[in-house]
Amino acid sequence: MTATTMITPALPAGRTIRLGFSRIRYEVKAYFRQGDSVFFTFLFPLVFLTIFSVAFSNGNFGRDASGHALSAADYYLPAMLAAGLLLSGLQNMAIDIAGEKSDGTLKRLGGSPLPVFSYFIGKIGQVLVTGLAQAALLILVAATAFGVKLPTDPARWWTFAWVFLLGVTTCAILGIALSALPRTGKSATAVIIPITLILQFISGVYLQFSQLPTWLQNFASVFPLKWLAQGMRSVFLPDSFKAVEQGHSWDLSGVLIATLIWLVVGLVLCRVTFRWIRKDS
Predict the structure, then answer these.
(1) What angle do CA 135, 140, 142 make, to 5 degrees?
(2) Nearest Cα residue to 139 out of 86, 55, 81
(3) Is residue 208 part of a domain?
(4) Does the CA dihedral 232-235-238-244 come out positive or negative?
(5) Is residue 4 included in any domain, yes or no?
(6) 81 is a domain residue
(7) What is the pLDDT of residue 36?
(8) Does residue 2 form part of some domain?
(9) DSSP state of 209
(10) Burial tier of 118 (Cβ tally within 10 Å: 0-12, 13-18, 19+)
(11) Beta-carbon contacts of residue 224 (< 8 Å; ≥ 6 apart)
(12) CA gap 64, 68 in Å, rounded
């Protein structure tokens, strides 16, 4: 079988889309059957939110507009939500598809009538479903277990909705593109996880972004996670916190533009790099 790139499926568009949506259930079930994936992508942000909330329970994280002291859980919730987008999308997708290339799953799918577009719908749909479940779990635990006061302004929830949907889709597309990087399925975790860890440390997830050196802030601003974390902070943190952001504002237009740019970059890379089997197979 020759290596194939992404092509327009021969099936009618409606049938292609239906096949894609039918694969979402399969992909979700397969995801939750993998214990390592569930822990390192689904539960990992929740574990770290719990650790930070307990370890820094006596820390000073500022106050909201009414003078209420913010807890570690208040401060780290938006960071963990942003990290969840990266882990559920980019990390999970890149490792999963690299494994499917290595074990012959993609080769078998390439010999079937399944269009590439249907395969992508199934994968991205799985990320949307699991990412939404992860975000809901994080918010629920933060509110019930750690007393985080959730926003009451509908505009903030609208911001959360578009940042989440755009962010998780962009990360999923980038994960598909990045799956071409590992040489084998076994090496995928060793290649992908360090990339996501570095991005988290320089993008204001574990460390306060304003405390990083200016050159490192500028470098992190090239990548989407910094913007996604900033967008999430604009939803869950008081407006007084925007004073420590770059430009002293939430810059939601910048969040939108930067994430859209990476979405386009990811689509182009997918178009160029995705194959049912590796060229060197």
Answers:
(1) 95
(2) 81
(3) yes
(4) positive
(5) no
(6) yes
(7) 77
(8) no
(9) G
(10) buried
(11) 167, 170, 171, 174, 258, 259, 262
(12) 5
Q: What's the domain count of the chain?
A: 1
Task: Name which of 195, 172, 5, 3 is nearest 96 in CA terms.
Answer: 172
User: Cα–Cα distance between 193 and 95 in angstroms, integer?
Assistant: 9
Name beta bridge partners: 5. 275
| CB atoms closer than 10 angstroms to residue 195 | 16
Phi and psi dihedrals of 69, rounded to 5? -70, 135
Block means of pLDDT (10 residues each) for the chain, 281 residues, are 43 78 89 83 92 87 75 94 94 91 81 82 94 96 94 96 97 94 87 94 92 94 96 94 89 96 95 72 47
Gap between the Cα atoms of 208 and 185, Å rounded: 34
What's the domain range around 162?
Answer: 13-59+68-273
Helix, strand, coil content of the chain in percent (nearest 5): 70, 0, 25
